[in-house]
Amino acid sequence: MPSFANFGNQLYTGERSFEIVRKQKVWYIVSALLLIVSTVALFTRGLTLGLEFTGGTEFRVVSVQTTDDIPGVDAVNSVVPGANANVTKVGTNSMRVQTDELTDDQADAVGAALAKAYGVSQSDNVTVSSVGPSWGETVSKKALQGLLVFLLLVALVISAYFRTWKMAAAAIIALLHDLFITVGIYALVGFEVTPATVIGFLTILGYSLYDTVVVFDKVRENTDHLTTQTKRTYSEAANLALNQTLVRSINTSVVALLPIASILFIGAFVLGAGTLKDLSLALFVGVAIGTYSSIFIATPVLADLREREPEMAALRKRVLGRRSDAAAAAPGRAARGASTSGSAGTSTAVLDRDRTQADDAAEVAGGVSDDPATSGGARPRQTGPRNQPKRKNNRRK
Asked: C-alpha distances in angstroms, 126 versus 106, 119, 321, 333?
């Protein structure tokens, strides 16, 4: 069984190839379904915004005797009915209780009730922090501004580096695709969106962009002076670049996903660390979707944009015309090959016959015969030069 390294070498040399660009409609349909699910989740469930965005009061209770959330909810409702208490476990023996914005007196009363419910001291084990809605609005505005500036700078840098706006457009489409699907998954699973989540969103955009730029760099290398040949179209050259970088993308993604998965599944679900959960889920989903988009979305979109150019359309026409002429000439070449093979067989037979006749003639010319009538019943006729001694003249004088 071939190793993964041999598999990568076969992809790089073109000995083995996956038709990714040619099947772009399949990938577009898959992405459309993911986007539809994300849109439905956003409009039906919505995002669970954290306290930093909505404003409110947060209580931290440490060294609790129980990690059940029911005592916390009952304690809040006993002081402020309908305060929308959200109780979650943090770590192994701590609880986080979030409510609507409370006054100072209400916060003190709720803190005392929580200390009693979890069997701890209020002064030593209960902390209170409040966030106003204006601060959350400022955070949201700054996050949106950072995202827009990031996308603008990305478009400018890619356009300058690759000297074409179409690569920048394809990269931005892939980035927005990753961001929207990640946000939709957040809405679907109901994870809380915090400033750590925003940091995770910006991080995955950078990772997705990195992978896309690597693939695009190979596409540019394969398509340099492409119009001077008639062997490949632009889509086929881009597909070769994808296959040549496929193993690298898989290896990079696996190496990146393993530590993120350990943080997500061990740090968040085992230890119950809320901040790690918010950050690691965004990273895990974003890296996976970013790898998918850099291979199955960015490059096919780029190929579709470039194939509409007059030069690339003319190149496609020449390549397909050359292949059509070669296919039409193939039966004639096969027939001529068969005819040549038959003529060669006939010539070989004639040569064998002439060779046999020449051997017979040489044998006769050499005087070799087994027929007694021919040789007079005596010894065979002597062949070769006659070197017999001269007879002496014994005539009497």
From this structure: 14, 11, 78, 89
Q: Break the chain down into helix, strand, coil percent, rounded to 5.
A: 70, 5, 25
Structural domain for 255, as ranges = 16-49+135-317
State the CB neighbour count (10 A cutoff) for residue 168.
20
Q: How far apart are CA 136 and CA 119, in angstroms?
A: 33
Question: Considering the domain boundaries, does residue 352 fall inside one?
Answer: no
Residues 6+ apart with CB under 8 A from 246: 8, 11, 18, 295
Domain boundary residue, one of 301, 317, 333: 317
Residue 385 within any structural domain of the chain: no
Q: Which amino acid is at 179?
A: L
The three-state secondary structure class of 380 is coil
In a domain, residue 396? The reply is no
pTM of the model: 0.69
Is residue 389 classed as helix, strand or coil in its secondary structure?
coil
List of residues 6+ apart from 210 with CB closer than 8 A? none
Residues in CB range of 302: below 8 A, 6 or more apart: 166, 167, 170, 216, 219, 238
Percentage of the chain surpassing pLDDT 90?
A: 10
Q: List, for residues 103-149, the tens digit of each pLDDT value.
A: 888 888 888 888 888 888 888 888 888 877 666 677 778 778 877 88
Token readout for 315 is: 């190149």
Helix (H) or strand (E) segment spanning residue 328: helix 310-365
**Distance between CA atoms of residues 312 and 229, nearest Å:** 12
Which burial class, exposed, middle or buried, applies to 269 when counting CB atoms under 10 A from its CB (0-12, 13-18, 19+)?
Answer: exposed
Which of 302, 317, 332 is at the close of a domain? 317
* CA dist., res. 196 & res. 322, Å (int): 56
Which CATH number is 158's domain given?
Answer: 1.20.1640.10
Report how many domains make up the chain: 2
Angle at alpha carbon of residue 332, lines to 329 and 336, rounded to 5°: 135
